[in-house]
Amino acid sequence: MKREVQAVKFLLAFGVLIVGENAMAQTKDSIKTRQIDEVVITGQGAAISKRRISNTVTTINSKELEKVPSQRLDAQLSALVPNAQINLSGGQAGSTSIIKARGINSAFLNSTPIIYVDGVRMDNMNTRSAFGTSQASAMSSIADIPMDNIERIEYINGGAATTLYGADAANGVIQIFTKKGSGRGTNYSLLAETGFQTPTADFLYFKRTKDLLFENGYSQKYRFNMNGKSGKDFGYSFSASYLNSSGVQIFKQNENQKIDISTGFRTKLFEGMDYESSFSYVRNEYKHNRNGNLGGYTGLWFTESGASKITGPGFNNRLDDLTDQEFQAIRDYVREAERLQDNAITVNRFFTSQTVKYRPVNSLNIKLTGGLDYRTQKQNIITTNQYLSHTTGKPVTNQGSISNLTRDYLGITGELTAQHTAKARDFSFITTAGAQVFTTEDYQVSYSGTNVRDGAKLVSEAAVKTANDFLNQSVNYGIYLQENIGFKNKAFIDLGIRGDKNTSFGEEVGMQFYPKAGLSYVLSSEPWMGDFFSTLRLRANYGVAGNLPPAYANDKTVRFLGFGGEQAAFFGQLGNEFLKPEKTKTWEAGMDANFLDNRINLSAGYYNAKTIDALFYLRLAPSYGYSSNQLFNIGEIENKGWETRLSLVPVRTENTELTLSGSFNTVKNKVLDTGGAPAFNINGFSERTIQTVVQEGYPVGFLRGYHGIFDDNGVLKESIPLSYLGTTIPEYYGNVGLNFRYKNFNLFSSGSYQMGAYASNWDAQFRFLYGASDDNVPAGEINQNGRKNWLSFSNAFIEKTDFLKIRNIGMTYTFDLNNNQSLTAGFNAINPFNFAKSSFDPEATIPGGAQGQGGATTGGISYATYSAPREFLISLKYNF
Questions:
Q1: I need a surface site. Which of 353, 529, 748, 861 has the fewest CB within 10 A?
Q2: Where's the TonB-dependent receptor plug domain (predicted)?
Q3: How far apart are CA 239 and CA 290, in angstroms?
């Protein structure tokens, strides 16, 4: 540890020395305005420079994105967004992720940011669906957002930055802007990428699990891009790619094939009016193996949880102690069980955005945007009699089944924005006004059949058929107004308000308003500041953003269920005519500084966010006649902490540049008030086992279970139920990065870390129950009581989840050819290194969803979940 600290100190000192020797070589004025005058749109309604706004906006360009060859948005951003934490909850294709920025501001609703592409709202469901199979098996809509034609991504993480998005933006906003033509000429590129995948075995308890369930896989991707212009007024882009990944599970049980086609163009209709269009189609096919238990055989539960002792014919579950003959027997059993599984998901997704920009006079810009996101997902699970006979050891001929789940999502967005600019002596004014409407429709159908013959593919061939469906519709109307006032281009006041009306609000609830106010002062513009700072900006703001209640939660309902073959009415939901959105009120203050000729970039800020009107279920008195609970706005949740990011350029010459970057964020989360609602779980199982729970006075999603106390002989003497066992929200988190350039050679790396959180090793607790391990529990307890008290000391299986993960190490070399052509050769190692305090993968936790679709989760339970594989990829990209 001392050596590491000394190395960091030396690196910092060396960087300052190099900066001092080379500082005068830079052109200060050009660097001074490079970043602070960058134009952004997200959170502002229309384009505005960063110096005028009172919050930070993270901008990631296409070059940065290309360094991380991930196939999904959240995985690509996990080490690129400095002030948010993005963790994939599993390593299989389509798995959900847990995204947290500034803590968890809702105990009921998921913390995933809203996502826009070219101004159109996207389906961002990141939990199990209404008919999802379990908390452990959830598929994310983020996994198939178009990725291959991106110009840049902007991210804002809540507070005043998201106020203009209103009633559903408290978790932040991710906005993707696609390419629509280059500045000059036409550029083409062809990419071929291939490589192999290896299972991440770092966290496997038994070494032989790797031999039982995993194999090396391959990956290949091919992509064509075109981006250019014709004449002065027409720009166009086109991208098409194909991905084929075999995955690392035997029999290709997590195979993934993906087609991504995107196009965009812009043109001038006539003087003062422009038109932009973008379109994308994605087809994503993958297999998704079982996680957790699901009431039968699953690979990791069978091996890592020790369930091989009770499954099928029963085996010695201490896998590493098996003889070669015993291991071959269990291997044959596992291979047949894996081969017979059939769980496939197919996604088709269409997206389009259409924008008209009109500039009647130079000081007025009007923009009209309309578009839609249509996503259809089909999951097909075939369970054969052969599979059931093999895994249970009991021959069956009439228990085969086919289960189908389809989910059709349609989101339509329309927005009209007008921005006016004016000047009066030393003052400048930018006035932005707009109106937005978005509507979402989520229709799901579950249809299944049992007593199906082996070989059947259709439910129509089943002896018994069942079906169910689910509909979720909502419409949101919003208006907003913002005024940005500048003085001498160095001091700015930012004022704004948004009003929203949503169909999920109660009848007695009118339009909900979200105000904001902020200050930005570019101190480095003062002549008395000298030349030490390239830029120095102070900022502070206050803003309100919301979280929408689920559709229909405000309505009083009657349930019509069959009884005796006839219609029968039952009390459904009481309804709440005063139901309204959660509101998160945030104040923050910070500074952004670039100094020593932009070699050191520092951003630091403090935030305090309080969610009022937080949604909690209340159990109704029996006299109401309703058996279901009802949502009420009765809670308060607090999040506060620091956000910092630092970039150092210790070496910068004509041919060489070294950049080191990192972020450090803190969060303290606490449920201040539940309005009398009892504690409830958002992930986990029964109160007797392990849960992540919401309770007044504690962090959202803390671990709760039985706390065992052992005597001096190691024998259990007391077990305290419903005990606090640790928080699942990290107290510290951030990213690290490195980029080195020498002429045409680039070396880069990125990673992320967290500290201060805990999780339950549920696999280890099962291993103890089934006798696969004696770890975690004193020998005295085992000798006296055996394993009957396995649930009475869940605290013995709680582990810290501090980690540092290197997400990507890569290098490229560009060969300059004739006629503006180039060939770039690249190598990437994805997920090459993991350093963790826990014995299990701290990210591979079951995603939860005890509150159903769209529910809050913080992870926190490690249970038979696959880790993301390692990938080693080589690529060739030809630009012409």
A1: 529
A2: 50-173
A3: 34
Q: Quote the pTM value.
A: 0.92
Q: What is the pLDDT of residues 530-557, one digit of tens each?
A: 788 889 999 999 999 999 999 999 999 9
pLDDT band at 42 (very low <50, low <70, confident <90, very high): low
Closest by CA to 489, choosing from 517, 524, 464, 515, is: 524
Cα–Cα distance for residue pair 729/104, rounded to 1 Å: 8
| Predicted pLDDT at 294 | 66
Residue scoring higher pLDDT (640 or 49): 640
Q: Give residue-wise pLDDT tens across range 666-682.
A: 999 999 999 999 999 99
Place of tokens 């629509």: 180
- 3-state SS record for 613-672: EEEEEECCCHHHCCCCCEEEEEEEEEEEEEEEEEEEEEEECCCEEEEEEEEEEECEEEEE
3-state SS class at 839: coil
3-state secondary structure of 780: helix
> How far apart (Å, rounded) are the C-alpha atoms in residues 598 and 137?
47
Domain 2-289+341-667+729-757+801-879 fold:
Maltoporin; Chain A (2.40.170)
Residue spans of beta strands (DSSP E) within 199-245: 217-230, 234-245
Among 126-135, 201-210, 562-571, 825-834, the minimum mean pLDDT is found in: 126-135
The Cα–Cα gap between 491 and 239 comes to: 42
Dihedral of CA atoms 714, 716, 718, 721 in degrees, nearest 10, equals 120
* Domain coordinates in residue numbering, the chain: 2-289+341-667+729-757+801-879
User: Under DSSP, is residue 231 helix (H, G, I), strand (E, B) or coil?
Assistant: coil
